[in-house]
Write a structure and sequence with these properties.
By secondary structure, the chain is an alpha/beta fold. The protein is built from 14 helices and 22 strands. Strands 1, 2, 3, 4, 5, 6 and 17 form a seven-stranded mixed β-sheet that branches. A five-stranded parallel β-sheet has the order 8-15-9-10-11. It has a five-stranded antiparallel β-sheet with strand order 18-19-22-21-20, sandwiched between helices. Helix 1 runs parallel beside helix 9, helix 3 packs across helix 4 and helix 3 crosses helix 6. Bound molecules: NADPH dihydro-nicotinamide-adenine-dinucleotide phosphate. NADPH dihydro-nicotinamide-adenine-dinucleotide phosphate binds next to helix 6 and strand 18.
Length: 463
């Protein structure tokens, strides 16, 4: 008989927490989970899922236009924001229910309340003190709020999903995943959209060709990209908001959306009381088995501020369950984690950027192709696709694959398996393409780009 009420107490029923709770219970552990807000966490409620639904919604404006080249006449079109939000809410409520049932069916005790840590083995939840051998912190993160004067008039990504109406004019600050994704969504839905980024080119950390390519494509879809600027202040006017940029220019808009990063949810959780060490960004510091500085307290997912992706949190949740309750110490392999940005057109990448590959491997061969996708030969749309493979010259291994274009995420998921398996360029060359697709280009690129005169220039520029 254990001296504790539970073998595992999970704080936060997001992607990682639910996965760890369910699988731990499946291995026979006595598990409880606390959730103060919504089942499924950021991804299901105010992240990946509703965002992707909005991306689909916003793409129809182009699809209707593109249909004309194929002989279709599409009648009068109108878009109703309230319908989209209501349908989205219904779908999210369905998913919340699925998450809750998954937990109940796995035998996990669910507390719909905030939990705080009292000491290394006890938690306060819903006015009760309970004890656990292990406590897992899976509380995720939240958007960073701006500090500029007038920023109380701005919104963050959490708010977008509950806006009463579609803004007619929106200014989006930031140059990461969230900013480019929402720029595409709002432009597609018909809003006059400006994205402002503080540096010379957005999506820092992505391959330089990918960044430059997207910066050429987005304006074609109506997004006004403003680089090397930030918002100095925001003022309320009779007609909306006036955002003054560092250039002195004033933009009149209806909403200002800040997407300038996310921060871990570690405040007021009792972590300091229990002696848990945080890093400079306020994230829980963990070892390779997700143990914090207090061995009975573990943490996974965005609260550790490493790779902020749902599938990574899921893998970490699995790893914790296996390590603690299946006698199978497991660490997630963080190499070659593929990811996508659901910009328009979308980006997907796996492995190293050209700059990182040159820095790590020295000699690399670059295969790059850009072309008009077949769909747009008849639609007439001026949209291009970019594909790029990075091959380390000595072993011929493909160490990076990048794409900007229709279906990029669907295509790169498959390539990620090949890259994970250590495929060489010759494996790609021997693979027969599927015709006619865009994806076949990845197995038919034969000629590397000429070696740049100064191959390390890109590396230095990226540093
Ligand atoms: P990111 O960290 O990706 O990007 C933050 C952006 O804001 C950067 O461009 C950064 O500029 C800029 N920035 C930071 N501080 C300021 C400031 N004070 N003023 C102006 N600009 C600033 O954050 P996001 O919020 O876009 O997304 C957070 C994370 O969520 C992502 O990294 C990703 O892991 C995850 N995510 C994944 C998605 C997916 O898989 N499709 C979708 C959405 C989010 P600089 O580069 O110069 O520092």
């Amino acid at each position: 008989m254990s001296q504790y009420d539970y073998d595992l107490f999970v704080i936060g029923a997001g992607s990682g927490g639910v996965r760890a709770a369910r699988f731990s219970a499946g291995y026979g552990a006595k598990v409880a989970i606390a959730e103060e807000r919504f089942f499924g966490g950021t991804c299901v409620n105010i992240g990946c899922v509703p965002k992707k639904l909005m991306v689909y919604a916003s793409h129809f404006s182009e699809d209707f236009e593109d249909a004309a080249g194929y002989g279709w006449s599409v009648g009068e079109r109108s878009f109703d924001w309230a319908t989209l939000i209501a349908n989205k809410d219904r779908e999210i409520a369905r998913l919340n229910g699925i998450y809750e049932r998954l937990l109940q069916n796995a035998g996990v005790e669910v507390f719909e309340a905030r939990a705080t840590i009292l000491d290394p083995h006890s938690v306060e939840v819903g006015g009760r003190k309970v004890t656990a051998e292990h406590i897992l912190v899976a509380t995720g993160g939240k958007p960073v709020r701006a500090r500029e004067p007038g920023c109380q008039h701005s919104i963050v990504s959490d708010d977008v999903f509950y806006l009463d109406r579609l803004p007619e004019r929106i200014l989006i600050a930031g140059g990461g995943y969230i900013a480019v994704e929402f720029a595409g969504v709002f432009a597609g839905l018909g809003a006059e959209t400006t994205q402002i980024y503080r540096g010379p080119l957005f999506l820092r950390g992505f391959d330089a060709d990918v960044r430059a390519f997207l910066a050429e494509e987005m304006p074609k879809k109506g997004v006004d990209l403003v680089f090397n600027q930030i918002i100095e202040k925001i003022e309320k006017t009779s007609n909306g908001l006036a955002a003054t940029l560092t250039s002195g220019e004033v933009r009149e808009v209806d909403q200002v959306l800040y997407a300038i990063g996310r921060q871990p949810n570690t405040m007021d959780l009792g972590l300091d009381r229990a002696g848990v060490t945080l890093n400079g960004a306020g994230a829980v510091k963990v070892d390779e088995h997700y143990r914090s500085s207090v061995p009975s307290i573990l943490a996974i997912g965005d609260v550790t501020d490493r790779i902020q992706l749902t599938p990574v949190a899921l893998a970490e949740g699995m790893a914790v369950a296996r390590t603690l309750f299946n006698d199978e110490p497991t660490t997630v392999d963080y190499h070659d984690v593929p990811s996508a940005v659901f910009s328009q057109p979308p980006i997907a990448s796996v492995g190293l950027t050209e700059e990182a590959a040159r820095a790590r491997h020295g000699a690399v061969d670059i295969y790059r192709s850009s072309f008009k996708p077949m769909k747009h030969t008849l639609s007439g749309r001026d949209e291009k696709t970019l594909m790029k493979l990075i091959v380390e010259r000595e072993g011929r291994r493909v160490v990076g694959a990048h794409m900007v274009g229709l279906d990029a995420a669907e295509i790169v998921q498959g390539l990620a398996i090949a890259i994970k398996a250590g495929a060489t360029k010759e494996h790609f060359d021997r693979t027969i393409g599927i015709h006619p697709t865009a994806a076949e280009e990845f197995v038919t690129m034969r000629e590397p780009l000429p070696e740049p005169e100064d191959s390390q220039a890109a590396v230095r520029a990226a540093e």
